[in-house]
């Protein structure tokens, strides 16, 4: 009498080409490089140890609108990126973006306001402009320096940026514009920031979408 075949599923083992190694980098922290100077002289206990002027990450380089005073570990050496002069600035490499730090703010205000700011606090915040965003985007530009309206974006980057006018460079500009004008314009896409687009055309386009 013939033997009945066993019912049920047979075990399966994937071949080597059907397997992959887990990439632990997807769980790793994101990092940033900071550019600035080490503070010397007398500082308050647990006070700032560095003044930071700019930063760089996978999306590109940015110059901060105003210097920021932070408590940081020792720098890694002279500045080596984003156009910062190694004779004048140092770099903190691959700092985790979630690193806890003491952030000290320094503001000029009338004595009365400084003393009674908790009960009578008045803050005047300057509205961002396209020029101020461009200065943040262009690491080698100087705040207040005039950027020619007839200058094409690729030419502006060639004069005041680092390396080529790449997609990450365009993505960084789009991010800065969207952050500055999120409440008044349609979202800026990378395709809206072609290399031949002039500064004047950029301002006009943003005005039309407002």
Question: Which key phrases capture this entry?
Answer:
alpha+beta, 210 residues, Non-ribosomal Peptide Synthetase Peptidyl Carrier Protein, Chain A, 6-stranded antiparallel beta sheet, 18% strand, 22% helix, 5 helices, globular, single chain
What's a concise summary of this model?
The protein is of the alpha+beta class. It contains five helices and six strands.
Question: Care to describe what's here?
Answer:
Strands 4-5-1-2-3-6 form a 6-stranded antiparallel beta sheet. It folds into 2 domains: 29-104, no CATH class; 125-209, Non-ribosomal Peptide Synthetase Peptidyl Carrier Protein, Chain A, CATH 1.10.1200. The chain has helices at 111-115, 130-137, 153-160, 167-181, 199-209; strands spanning 31-38, 50-57, 60-70, 77-78, 90-96, 103-104. It has 5 helices and 6 strands. It starts with 30 loop residues before the first strand and ends with a helix.
List the helices and strands and how they pair.
Elements lengths: L30 E8 L11 E8 L2 E11 L6 E2 L11 E7 L6 E2 L6 H5 L14 H8 L15 H8 L6 H15 L17 H11 L1
Antiparallel strand pairs: 1-2, 1-5, 2-3, 3-6, 4-5
Helix pairs in contact: 2-4
Under the CATH scheme, which class of the largest domain? Mainly Alpha
Number of DSSP strands? 6
Number of domains: 2
Straight-line distance between termini: 85 Å
**Share of residues in helices:** 10-25%
Mean pLDDT: 78
Q: Given the C-alpha coordinates, what overall shape results?
A: globular
Largest sheet: 6 strands, antiparallel
Side-by-side strand order of the widest sheet: 4-5-1-2-3-6
- Poorly predicted regions are 24-28, 118-125
The CATH architecture category of the largest domain equals: Orthogonal Bundle
Along the chain, the helix and strand elements come as EEEEEEHHHHH
Q: Proportion of β residues?
A: 15-25%
Number of helices: 5
Compute the gyration radius: what is it?
25 Å
